[in-house]
Amino acid sequence: MHDLSGRRALFVGGSSGMGLAAARLFHKLGAEVILAGRSASRLDAARQSLGDAGSAATLAFDITDDDAVNEALSHLPAGGIDHLVITAASVTHGPFASQPVTELRAMFDTKFWGAYGLARAALPSLRDGGSIILLSGVLSRRPGINCAALGAACAAIEALTRGLALELGPRLRVNCIAPGMVRTELHDRIPLARREAMFQTTGSSLPVGRIGRPEEIAQAVLLAATSGYMTGHVLDMDGGHMVRQYATR
Ligand SMILES: NC(=O)c1ccc[n+]([C@@H]2O[C@H](COP(=O)([O-])OP(=O)(O)OC[C@H]3O[C@@H](n4cnc5c(N)ncnc54)[C@H](OP(=O)(O)O)[C@@H]3O)[C@@H](O)[C@H]2O)c1
Q: Is the residue at 72 inside a domain?
């Protein structure tokens, strides 16, 4: 087991899903954890769910608002952070021919430009030897119908990962986790019966026979944070989505 005592990590998107699962794992291993997202009440609930081992703080801001990002970062504890984990995103999908471009631009504003701006703004706060961990998605390389723009946003994050790893090394390492479908609050807006059917259909098409759990992605975030020889890497955590059969079994 890793001992993360003395390390401090900021999880932007840490109030739910994979960000919260990763924060929970880091917290359990002794890291000082800071959770960020837009909703202060969700952050407070997430902080309380971590229990009382170690310490946890929260910062409420919108990743697309540069002023709010800078203001929030100014409240980081003295000495900065070791790891910046960015899972925040509002994603959308729809038919290429009819989905409003304004919706797609808004998605890029969170998923890509949000991560880009936040990583840049946080540079002075990242301690030497630290790391940045971004989240893309298998759609970057394995397309889905109605997901062309989301796939492009994921691919942009992966390209950013490689570019930043080159430019920010050796002071910092930069890696990316590319999840397949994972059961998180991201899917809550889909009506329950349809959502469960989607999870079941997708899961049964995968070599592992099920969709992912946030805790499994958290393990990958931990690997990226603690592996000193890993940078510029995109780690697929997808239950075998990349090698799945094109017809269901
Ligand atoms: N779940 C999947 O199946 C799946 C698959 C592939 C890739 N991914 C990617 O993995 C990442 C994490 O997904 P998830 O499933 O863990 O999502 P999630 O459960 O919906 O969590 C998203 C987090 O981001 C925060 N957030 C959203 N918009 C924000 C903004 N503008 N500024 C600041 N915080 C914001 C949310 O809190 P507030 O709403 O309070 O701001 C929440 O804490 C995303 O990039 C997603 O695209 C997910």
A: yes
Q: Is residue 74 part of a domain?
A: yes
Domains contained in the chain, number: 1
CATH code: domain of residue 112: 3.40.50.720
pLDDT digits (tens, 9 = 90+) for 192-248: 999 999 999 999 999 999 999 999 999 999 999 999 999 999 999 999 999 987 765
At 69-86, the pLDDT tens digits run 999 999 999 999 999 999
Say if ligand 1 is within 6 A of residue 142 CB: no
Distance 17 CA to ligand 1 centre (A): 7
- How many whole angstroms from 90 Cα to the centroid of ligand 1? 6
Tell me how far the alpha carbon of residue 15 lies from the centroid of ligand 1, in angstroms.
Answer: 9
> 78, exposed or middle or buried, with CB in 10 Å at 0-12, 13-18, 19+?
exposed
Q: Which atom of ligand 1 is nearest to the CA of 211?
A: 3
CA separation, residue 64 to residues 14, 71, 88, 108, 244 (Å): 16, 13, 10, 10, 35
